[in-house]
Amino acid sequence: MIAIRKILCPIDLGPCADHALAYAAELAEKLSAELTVLYAVPDLLPMMPDATMPMPVSPTDSTELLANGRAALAERLAVSTVSRLNPKSEVRLGSADTEIVEVAKEMGADLIVIGTHGRTGLAHFFLGSVAEKIVRTAPCPVLTVRG
Q1: What is the DSSP string of the chain?
Q2: What does the alpha-carbon distance between residue 67 and residue 34 come to, in Å, rounded to a whole number?
Q3: Could you give all domains of the chain from N- to C-terminal order, each with its CATH number?
Q4: Contacts of 48 (CB under 8 A, 6+ apart)
Q5: 145 Cβ contact partners less than 8 Å away, ≥ 6 residues apart
Q6: Cβ neighbours of residue 16 under 8 Å, at least 6 residues apart?
Q7: In this predicted model, what pLDDT tens digit does every residue of 71-80 receive, in sequence order?
Q8: In 10 A of CB 93, how many CB atoms?
């Protein structure tokens, strides 16, 4: 039988993440697995007037971004029913797809549970899909949960 002992649930603090977090919590509870919730804070800010040209965040700003990310994730977990499981929380600065795969490798995740916005057409083409990138590059199985 396949043993799922460590579950990673990356969230973006948006409404689609709630559904994935509920799935991850339910699975963690039923399988007696350790749950880690990850929030990846983007490390690039758009530069005006062309938002397609990113500008690296200064070290001072990155410290503040990480602190704000930790506070936002802690608040989200505190009001969630997931708090009963006492999940680990992780906040990283960087591209979501890269950070999710890296954390999954570091923790030896057996499963990633990730929400998807379900975008199609031009929105999917221009915005891409973090969930799709994770499915292609993750070191373990990925459960995608449509929001």
Answers
A1: -----EEEEEE-SSHHHHHHHHHHHHHHHHHT-EEEEEEEE--EEE-SS-TTSEEEPPHHHHHHHHHHHHHHHHHHHHTSGGGGG--EEEEEES-HHHHHHHHHHHHT-SEEEEEE----HHHHHHH--HHHHHHHH-SS-EEEEE-
A2: 24
A3: 6-146 (3.40.50.620)
A4: none
A5: 19, 20, 23, 113, 114, 115, 116
A6: 115, 116, 117, 146, 147
A7: 988 888 888 8
A8: 16
Q: What are the structure tokens assigned to 54, written together?
A: 């990113």
Largest CA distance in the chain: 55
Extract the tokens encoding 65. Answer: 């971004």
How far apart CA 104 and CA 123 sit, in angstroms, is: 27
Structure tokens at 55: 């500008």
Measured between alpha carbons, how far is 116 from 60 in angstroms, rounded to an integer?
A: 32
pTM over 0.70: yes
Q: What percent of the chain has pLDDT over 90?
A: 46
Structure confidence by residue, pLDDT tens digits, 40-97 = 988 765 444 455 555 555 555 788 889 998 998 888 888 888 888 889 999 999 999 9
